[in-house]
Structures are given as structure tokens and as C-alpha cells.
Amino acid sequence: MAHPYVLLSAAVSLDGFLDDTGPERLLLSGPEDFDRVDEVRADSDAILVGAGTLRSDNPRLLVASAERRAARVAAGRPEHPLKVTVSASGDLDPTARFWHTGGAKIAYTTDEGARRLRELLPTDVEVAPLGPAVEWAVVLAHLGDVKGVRRLMVEGGGHVHTRLLQQGLADELRLAVAPLFVGEADAPRMFGPGAYPPGRMRLLETRPVGDVVLLRYVPTAPGTGRSAVAADRRWLRTACELAAQCPPSRTAFSVGAVIVAADGTELARAHSREGGDPVVHAEEAALAKLDPADPRLATATVYSSLEPCTRRASRPAPCARLILDAGVRRVVTAWREPDTFVASADGSGALTAQGVDVVLLPECERRAKAPNAHLLSPPDRS
Ligand SMILES: NC(=O)C1=CN([C@@H]2O[C@H](COP(=O)(O)OP(=O)(O)OC[C@H]3O[C@@H](n4cnc5c(N)ncnc54)[C@H](OP(=O)(O)O)[C@@H]3O)[C@@H](O)[C@H]2O)C=CC1
Ligand SMILES: Nc1c(N[C@@H]2O[C@H](COP(=O)(O)O)[C@@H](O)[C@H]2O)[nH]c(=O)[nH]c1=O
Fold this sequence. Notes:
Cytidine Deaminase, domain 2; binds ligand AOF; Dihydrofolate Reductase, subunit A; elongated; 2 domains; alpha/beta; binds NADPH dihydro-nicotinamide-adenine-dinucleotide phosphate; 382 residues; 12 helices
């Protein structure tokens, strides 16, 4: 189940609105910023908007720049990204520009909505019924697994942005803050009320674009239990990057680990053979940087590129034991330990048996294996 990278994109007024209440679409971006948005579109495999935005804005959602379209075609991609919309009701205007411009289109809807849309929409539009309700995780899995979408740009509106962020499904937020006020209480807001991931997001970039300021944030708070959120994938990729920093070895794996508090604060990071210790493991070195009495450990997540070990010759306690002793209750890993050094290690099983939630994200396995290719026989190319 490979979700695409989900990028939420919008422009907001200084008082936090996406639009005003007038009949025309409010242009918050200036010309330079619309060009920046066009560049993001051209980099995307698909662009999604909610049915509310289709009804109010009648957008086309095309790549405007001829050069960018030509570059896409030269790279073997369609001229325009796949256009995607989501509607429970199926209450969509068949004459809207969305359906009659650009390339491929897909509408995710309910079974009931599909009955309506199949009659209404042009026959080249794919209508995808997803049961009595439309679950966002199912939409993203279908886009990733069936439509081959790797980068999804979500261009609103507020309802869609709110749900994706609240459900931990957004990988990145790109917000253009425009220097004007809307000042109407019932204008649409970018984010509505509800439960958001805790803590602070991480700022990746700020950039003036004409008179607007672009802000790029990524979520940091780990998921809970056995389900994974976008922040889990990001932290696990960081662990895999740390694995690549290990001093090479023919007798031990290269592994990276990060320990992250429930609010997204990074508590410690480490990699195998760190600090001149030829046998130290990544999880062991990361835990050693923390006070064992740190109350945040009980709700923290340990990210480890390889599952924690259960048996080792070099130290009395394996990493699974150290994690249990630290009181950590959640581990996210990319790769089950192969039999290279220890037969049937099963660190995930050992932790699960003690009530720890272990989440395996196979989409990161290739990155976790990369610095260990010389230890895998026959050479692993997966
Ligand atoms: N400034 C900016 O950058 C942008 C501004 N906007 C503005 O945002 C406003 C529109 O936002 P908003 O009204 O929140 O609408 P949205 O575009 O977020 O669409 C909401 C609709 O999408 C469908 N939908 C969403 N989630 C689901 C789900 N899980 N299952 C089934 N259907 C779902 C529903 O359609 P249905 O009702 O058919 O069931 C719902 O009513 C407009 O004023 C627009 O101009 C929009 C994009 C960008
Ligand atoms: N108003 C607004 C945005 N609105 C977004 O652009 C869509 C219309 O695009 P197009 O079909 O190319 O005209 C619209 O439906 C909405 O998703 N985006 C921004 O970056 N800045 C803005 O100020």
C-alpha cells in the first residue's frame, strides 16, 4: 500500500481565509506565486481538489507553462497531471471545465454518488465508487497502487486540507500568505476545528514570492498504535539516512535510529558503530543519550531502519530488551532482520509479544538495505 507524497497547497489571507464570500474566486496569489504553483503542478503526478472547490471555482487545474508541459512530455509523462476529485454526493456539474480540459480524470465517490456520476459525466472520466463512504486512506492507496501516483498536489479546499492533515495523511504543507484581509466571519478557512496532530510542525523553508510569503512545513508527530502517519514515514527515512553514515563493516549491519516524543520533538538519534565504538547498535546508542527516567519515553516512538535485534554476542542486552526496559511502547521499522548473522531473529515478534506496537513500513526497506548491500547474499536488488 504505497501512498503518494501528499503536498497540501493553498494561498491564505492574513486573517487565515481561503476565499471571500463573493461569487468570484478570490485571487490571493500574485503573478509570481501563480507561476510557482504552476511549477509545483508540473512536478506532480496528480492534482486533487474537493467537490466544494469544483462547485465554487470551476477550475481547470492545468499546467499553464508550455515549457513545463514540453518537459513533462520529453520525460515520458503526460502533458498534464491526472486530475482527481472527491465527492460523497455525486453532485457535480458535468459541464464544469475540470472534465473538459487537460488529460486523465478520476472522481472518487460513494456507491450512491457513482450511480449519479456515471450518468452525468463524460465517458472518458473514471468514476471510482468506494462503498457507502469515501475513506481518504483508501483514495490515497488507490492513487498510489493502481494509478501509480508518486506525488499528489492537493489544491484545496478547506474541508479536504483539514481532513488530510487531521488524519496524518499530509506529508507537507505549502502555504502562500497573501498581504490582504478578507474580514468575513463566514468565508472559507484553510483549516477548520477538530483534532490535529499534536506539537509543532517543522519549518522547511520560507521564501518571498512577489508580495506573498511561501511557508513550507512538515508534520512531526508520530502516529499512535499500529497505524502509520506521514510523519512516521519521514522519521523512518531519517533513520535510513543515518544508516548510510555508519562506518562500513563486513561483520555487522549499518542501522540508523531516531527516538521521537509524542509531540514530534526529536529526543535522540544515532547510528551503528557511532563515536568510535565498533559494536554499538543504533537503538542502543540513541537510548544511551537519554535519561532513563525521561517521562517522554513512555509515549515515544523508536524509528529503526532495521528491526531491533533479539540476540547479540557483543553485548549482554539486545536492543529489543533495551527498548522494553526504557518503557518505549511503539517502534517503526523498515526491514525485518535477515538470517545473515542471527537465524530467525524476529525482533518485531519479541517486542509485539510484550505489548509494543511494531509498525513495518516496507516502502522504506530499499533505503534501509542500501548501506548493507555487501552483506546480502545473493546481492539484494529489491
Ligand atoms: N486560496 C486557495 O488556495 C484555495 C481556495 N479554495 C477555496 O476553498 C473553498 C472550497 O472549500 P470547501 O468548501 O471546504 O470545499 P472542498 O474543496 O474542500 O470540498 C469539500 C467537498 O469534497 C467532498 N469530500 C471531501 N472529503 C470527502 C470524503 N472523505 N468523502 C467524500 N467526499 C468528500 C465533499 O463533496 P460533496 O459535498 O459533493 O459530497 C465535500 O463537500 C472555495 O471558496 C475555494 O475558492 C480552494 C482551493 C484553494
Ligand atoms: N485562489 C488561489 C488558488 N486557488 C486554487 O486554484 C484553482 C484554480 O486554478 P486554475 O484552474 O488554474 O485557474 C482553484 O480551484 C483552487 O484550487 N490557488 C492559489 O495558489 N492561489 C490563489 O490565490
